[in-house]
Automatic annotation (TrEMBL):
Its main location: mitochondrion. Residues 16-32 have a biased composition (Low complexity). InterPro entries: Miga. This is Mitoguardin 2. The lineage of its organism: Eukaryota, Metazoa, Chordata, Craniata, Vertebrata. Residues 1-15 have a biased composition (Polar residues). GO terms for cellular component: mitochondrial outer membrane.
Amino acid sequence: MQSPGSKSNDTLSGISSIEPSKHSGSSHSLASMVAVNSSSPMAACSGPWDTGGMEESVTTSDGNAESLYMQGMELFEEALQKWEQALSVGQRGDSSTPTPGDSLRNPEAASEVLSEPESQRREFAEKLESLLHRAYHLQEEFGSTFPADSVLLDLERTLMVPLTEGSLHLRADDEDSLTSEDSFFSATELFESLQAGDDLIPLSRPAAAYEEALQLVKEGKVPCRTLRTELLGCYSDQDFLAKLHCVRQAFEGLLEDKSNQLFFGEVGRQMVTGLMTKAEKSPKGFLESYEEMMVYALRPETWATTRLELEGRGVVCMSFFDIVLDFILMDAFEDLENPPSSVLAVLRNRWLSDSFKETALATACWSVLKAKRRLLMVPDGFISHFYSVSEHVSPVLAFGFLGPKPQLSEVCAFFKHQIVQYLRDMFDLDNVRYTSVPALADDILQLSRRRSEILLGYLGAPVASSVGLNGALPRENGPLEEMQ
């Protein structure tokens, strides 16, 4: 059951109304250079930019024109590599010229060899060097003016999830840990036993809460914004929904305890702080905004307004799973799976410095958040506080997930892997007890502590594994303030 506005990029219509600027000067010069300096059939790709084809190019959509432009840039870079290889081969060829010993043995032959072939090679090498020099100069000129507004707009359209903007698949070597065949088949057998007839067949293990939830699913009483069946390793949509119902109830019970509220809030704070520290960014602004958001979220008088805000975005249940784990985190991971080719082209372009790429992504993130703020139904509500946090976090995470720095990408990949594995464990009948809601809640809390210890230990952040007698968690900046 997914409403049209349920995705995290529900304000795409507002962003897409911004008209891209047309900066065609550098585009035309680059395409022209490819056409002039290439004798291969691939030079035909620059056709739409030629004078004879300008009328046709006017009718081409901006998206197609930009796609052709980026293809031309890729071909130009490929040509540059070929020229570099040609120069290298030519230089190696010089090493095969006759040695002084050869000239002493046969002076006339040596003079004849050096007269024409070597001079031709040198002349060719000089031309290549001149061509490469001009190409490198063009790179520098291009880097000082790129990207155009239209490319920044494409970046903005990609990064529509404020928290984790900004794509890495789970590591292949961890795939075995993500999917347990024993767990999968045990869940299959269990589900088949429940579907064998109208009367429930006794299960091989106690799962009373799961059985009750499955009956509610059959009656259509378990709403859901987005099915996560495949991502979480569930046997079927019904299996996912039954477990989802139980998980919602478990989190509801857990968060009635204030110490658990503080625990989950502190884990989130420490995780993001650790990520920002790994990215060599100051977490000060984030910590201030996060504290304000937590104070707002835990005030009972704000809950009705928050419900209206989130329902407008398709969230059907005000639970920790639906809001934090599903709406924020899993939507973000999903959106980062397939970024537009133009975004990847910017990030993978070796002509641009890493700092320039990071600035371009940050500008796109901030532009998206600014546009989204204008569309909020509650200017100072939960989503507004969430955007304040995102202003500090989204540029860091966008560059981490999509950027060119291997170490930061590895950190973000590990972060994603731990979150997904945490959710898979939570939806696994072999890892947690679905015998009753309290038993499931206790297992989820222990699972949360274990996974947070692994992740925070990796990030080098203080592990929020123990809660003091007064319900406060240890933290770097003093005790956590009361959030009433």
